[in-house]
Q: What sequence folds into this?
């Protein structure tokens, strides 16, 4: 199969890396080759986070090139815009519409673009915005935004929903398992 | 055979386990930290954090002297600290295998420089492996221990951020068995590096590199992958993956060992290619050696010297005549820089330092973020420990009225890393600066690793937390005070008093890291803004707290506190002159 390129973006603390782990482990469980990569360090402290997942028969580079992503999943609108140049023509963008102010905006040093959703639509005609926070809260925990986002994109991946659900089940524990599975289903229905 | 998805760092720990490593030591540093955090999960490995990289390497050398296999890990700049034992260890060789893992950080995602550590292999005359994915990270680590013992040499393994943090599939193997039990063996001619012994060892080191070069020419980790065209590429590590993707037709000589180079293999390969590229990140390390062999190659005249070699930059380099431009974020979007956490104990200290007009000589840690606006309160940052010694140098030359502005700032971990030597120098040589130790009882920046102030080791064993106040006193500092950085009045008063004092003094600002689950403070209720009292003065915004947001969409602009982020540290409450911030006591 052709390599399927996924870019996951968000803000430090939103669970971008856990979502990447679910997708990568699901690819492994489906018998595909997979490489996942991200930069963490300074980015953990409320900074912008970007992670790559590449799935295929044989994957060499772990880094997605700008202009080649089949799918961009963003946990925050401004980050969707920031990394939209990774999308290939016709690539799909799924994003959480709930904004998080960068420290520069919170401190009154910069202005959050009021028309962020229109700007996203202008760069990607295939963009889908959802309120992942509300869905996560309905599932039982606002922190499950990452699982909602995975749920929303499940149908667009070269991996079956059954495998992804099984991996989420395996990677989560205790009460979090039920919440995560609900969030995943909630995202899939969005 | 079990297949597992692992980061390069997890795979290195796995390789160490498979190789029968007994001792692993390190000082945390991005992107190397997770090597030890994973090694400690294998019961057969004694894994520990050392106060600095030099100590970590010397602990490993001791284990090797005893006949055990030892893994030592650090980030690229850590090798600078460990360079002293490394270069002499090269002469000594090993008894139990010793592997030094060095994780480079091209692009400086979390570093102060992007030195290319491959130069250390040549400089110290030790072999160096460079894996290109997690499976190679595991396999090369394991192989490196065999090589270390067979050739009586320390072996380096170099990764970068992409390899260390990137995940790919690893084939787990059974660990080796039947390694000899550690014991004492005296071998002074080899283990005591006096001039007379070292003179006899040096020629053996040169001979060792010659034999390694011959050996490496026949190993499967240096391999030719046949292509179809007339273009050839020599590469290693992550650059191999990018070359593979962008030049699928090319013949590729993939090097698993970047020092010493397999010269005959390279000569034969070059002879078959019409155009030969050397594709490597950072320095022209392989390129210069190949050029020295009299072989013409294309390299750094097209491939960028600075920053990460991303596939995008490589594509630009191969296609265009111009150097690939570094990626620049779209400027019109507001940036999202990292920030000190809400409730961080460093915030009040930097707020006060700025207010008092201090010239802050800093070093490496979360508190380096005090450089960013609105705090903007760090004036120098060189390396760990430099905060104090830079202050000493400054106060030696400045006129009296400026001398008093200088405050050297560092964390508990970097104070114990090398800062303590700087403080000894300041005391010994009559320095008169003000020194602040931001004591949050943990190595926070790299993800809260234990250190000697924590009261616990990497493996969770209790250990006596070092008494920093007593330590400063015993060095000879007369004025040592402990303050609570959540108390802005006390912080300001003590800093004012000590900056005015014409003698050396140390202020220890003590508060456990907000994020430390074991020792973090008891949860305190969040705060909220009393809207009718807010005068829109923006005083609270000067803290740069991520929980405080400036709202401009209402009748008047005002501050709002995000209760899900606020930790209740009450710094903003102390700053507000209009009683517009109160504790949410209804929760």
A:
């Amino acid at each position: 199969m052709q390599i399927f390129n996924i870019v996951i973006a968000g803000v430090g603390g939103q669970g971008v890396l856990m979502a990447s782990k679910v997708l990568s482990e699901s690819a492994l469980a489906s018998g595909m080759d997979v490489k996942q990569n991200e930069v963490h360090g300074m980015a953990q402290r409320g900074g912008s986070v970007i992670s790559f997942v590449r799935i295929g028969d044989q994957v060499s580079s772990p880094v997605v090139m700008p202009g080649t992503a089949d799918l961009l999943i963003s946990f925050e609108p401004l980050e969707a815009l920031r990394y939209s140049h990774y999308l290939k023509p016709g690539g799909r963008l799924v994003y959480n519409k709930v904004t998080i102010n960068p420290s520069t905006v919170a401190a009154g040093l910069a202005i959050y673009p009021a028309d962020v959703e229109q700007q996203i639509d202008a760069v990607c005609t295939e963009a889908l915005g959802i309120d992942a926070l509300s869905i996560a809260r309905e599932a039982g925990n606002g922190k499950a935004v990452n699982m909602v986002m995975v749920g929303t994109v499940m149908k667009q991946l070269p991996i079956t929903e059954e495998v992804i659900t099984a991996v989420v089940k395996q990677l989560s524990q205790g009460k979090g398992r039920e919440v995560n599975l609900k969030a995943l289903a909630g995202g899939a229905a969005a | 055979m079990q297949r597992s998805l692992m980061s390069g760092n997890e795979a290195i720990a796995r390789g160490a386990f498979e190789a029968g490593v007994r001792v692993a030591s390190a000082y945390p540093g991005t992107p190397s930290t997770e090597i030890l955090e994973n090694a400690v999960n294998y019961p057969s490995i004694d894994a520990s954090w050392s106060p600095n990289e030099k100590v970590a390497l010397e602990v490993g050398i001791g284990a090797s002297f005893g006949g055990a296999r030892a893994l030592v890990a650090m980030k690229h700049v850590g090798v600078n600290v460990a360079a002293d034992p490394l270069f002499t260890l090269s002469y000594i060789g090993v008894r139990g295998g010793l592997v030094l893992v060095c994780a480079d950080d091209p692009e400086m995602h979390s570093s102060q420089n992007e030195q290319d550590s491959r130069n250390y292999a040549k400089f110290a005359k030790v072999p160096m492996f460079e894996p290109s994915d997690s499976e190679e990270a595991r396999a090369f680590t394991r192989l490196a221990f065999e090589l270390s013992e067979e050739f009586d040499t320390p072996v380096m393994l170099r990764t970068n951020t992409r390899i260390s943090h990137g995940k790919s599939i690893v084939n787990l193997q059974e660990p080796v068995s039947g390694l000899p039990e550690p014991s004492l063996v005296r071998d002074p001619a080899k283990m005591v590096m006096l001039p007379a012994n070292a003179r006899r060892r040096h020629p053996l080191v040169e001979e060792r590199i010659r034999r390694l070069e011959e050996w490496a020419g026949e190993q499967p980790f240096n391999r030719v992958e046949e292509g179809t065209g007339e273009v050839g590429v020599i590469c290693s590590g992550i650059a191999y993956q990018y070359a593979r993707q962008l030049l699928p037709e090319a013949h590729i000589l993939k090097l698993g060992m970047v020092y010493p180079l397999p010269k005959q293999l390279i000569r034969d390969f070059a002879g078959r290619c019409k155009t030969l590229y050397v594709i490597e990140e950072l320095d022209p390390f392989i390129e210069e050696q190949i050029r020295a062999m009299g072989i013409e190659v294309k390299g750094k005249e097209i491939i960028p010297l600075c920053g990460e070699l991303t596939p995008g930059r490589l594509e630009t380099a191969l296609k265009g005549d111009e150097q690939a431009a570094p990626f620049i974020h779209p400027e019109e979007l507001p940036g999202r820089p990292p920030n000190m956490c809400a409730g961080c104990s460093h915030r009040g200290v930097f707020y006060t330092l700025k207010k008092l007009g201090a010239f802050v000589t800093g070093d490496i840690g979360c508190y380096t973020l005090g450089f960013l606006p609105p705090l903007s309160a760090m004036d120098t940052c060189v390396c760990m420990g430099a905060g104090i010694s830079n202050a000493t140098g400054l106060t030696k030359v400045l006129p009296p009225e400026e001398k008093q502005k200088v405050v050297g700032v560092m964390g508990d971990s970097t104070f114990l890393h090398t800062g303590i030597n700087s403080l000894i120098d300041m005391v010994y040589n009559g320095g008169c600066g003000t020194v602040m130790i931001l004591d949050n009882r943990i190595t926070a920046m790299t993800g809260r690793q234990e250190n000697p102030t924590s009261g616990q080791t990497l493996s969770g064993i209790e250990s006596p937390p070092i008494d920093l106040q007593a330590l400063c006193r015993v060095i000879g500092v007369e004025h040592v005070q402990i303050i609570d950085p959540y108390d802005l009045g006390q912080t300001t008063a003590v800093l004012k008093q000590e900056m005015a004092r014409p003698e050396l003094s140390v202020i220890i600002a003590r508060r456990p890291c907000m994020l430390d689950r074991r020792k973090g403070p008891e949860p305190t209720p969040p705060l909220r803004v009393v809207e009718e009292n807010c005068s829109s003065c923006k005083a609270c915004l000067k803290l740069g707290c991520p929980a405080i947001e400036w709202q401009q969409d209402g009748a008047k602009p005002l501050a709002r506190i995000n209760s899900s982020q606020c930790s209740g540290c009450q710094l903003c409450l102390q700053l507000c002159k209009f009683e517009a911030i109160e504790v949410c006591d209804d929760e």
Remarks:
- DSSP finds eight helices and six strands in chain A.
